[in-house]
Amino acid sequence: MATVIIPTPLRKFTDQQASVKLDAETVQAAIDRLIELYPVLAQHLLDKEGQVRAFVRIFLEDEDILALDGPNTALKSDSTLSIIPAIAGGIDL
Question: Which InterPro entries does the UniProt record give (predicted)?
């Protein structure tokens, strides 16, 4: 089963789970399954067309999936996906 690492800001939508193990053959299948389990994540991860929002990055191990086959990137049983939402804010010095 692939492991999806849930970032801290989204854990309130996954019953405080830091990671979720999913049976999925592709990144898209893993995203779909994650949203099946935790439907409220859809509004935080997907745009109106059901695609991963532009400001959300998904990494397979250390590679951005956009540098691979995007959502069609194949997963292995020991794959680790990380969801990385954009962080904004800070102060000007």
Answer: Beta-grasp_dom_sf, Mopterin_synth/thiamin_S_b, Sulfur_Carrier/Prot_Modifier, ThiS/MoaD-like
Q: What is the model's pTM?
A: 0.87
Tokens of 47: 């745009």
**CB of 45 closer than 8 Å to CB of 35:** yes
CATH superfamily to which 2-85 belongs: Beta-grasp domain (3.10.20.30)
Q: Mean pLDDT over residues 47-72, rounded?
A: 93
Using an 8 Å Cβ cutoff, are 6 and 83 in contact? yes
3-state secondary structure 25-58: CEHHHHHHHHHHHCHHHHHHHECCCCCECCCEEE
